[in-house]
Amino acid sequence: MWFPVQELRIVGAAELMRPGVQQLVVQSHEMAADCGSSTVTVFAGGPGGSVVPAASVANPCELSATIVRSDNSISLAGPYYSATAPMCCPTKPSASAVLRYRGGRWIESPSYYKLYPGRLPPG
After folding, report:
1. CA-to-CA distance for 57 and 46, rounded, in angstroms?
2. How far apart are CA 82 and CA 112, in angstroms?
3. 3-state DSSP of 15-80
4. Cα 42–73–69 angle (5° rounding)?
5. Are 40 and 66 in contact (CB under 8 A)?
6. If DSSP codes are grouped into helix, strand and coil, which group holds residue 99?
7. Domain boundaries in the chain?
8. Which of 15, 40, 84, 112 has the smallest C-beta neighbourhood within 10 Å, fewest atoms?
9. pTM, rounded to two decimals
10. pLDDT tens figures, 76-115
11. Nearest Cα to 24, choosing from 67, 57, 62?
């Protein structure tokens, strides 16, 4: 798939999964004739020094991320679309959620955006 407009932003690095080890948080947006899609991905160190996605969160149109160092979490903001909402009309135009790594798993609260633990979104 070809997107004429693509943007990538490094949000920053933080100790999200365990103390003393940082993960990189990246935000991307791609679009064509419509508002496109946005993804926030947390990258972590993998086997043999590789870099792997620890978690990704995707949303139609827009999604932004801010690292909250006091809580070792990521604040997510963007429109929320219910399963039946058309792309023109988000269910909640300005929603926010928090992404945390707790008890060995990623948790998004509330679950407004699509969470992909341990991988990138399909596509």
Report:
1. 19
2. 8
3. EEEECCEEEEEEEEEEECCCCCEEEEEEEEECHHHCEEEEEEEEEECCCEEEEECCCCEEEEEEEE
4. 110
5. no
6. strand
7. 5-117
8. 84
9. 0.91
10. 999 999 999 988 899 999 999 999 999 999 999 999 999 9
11. 67
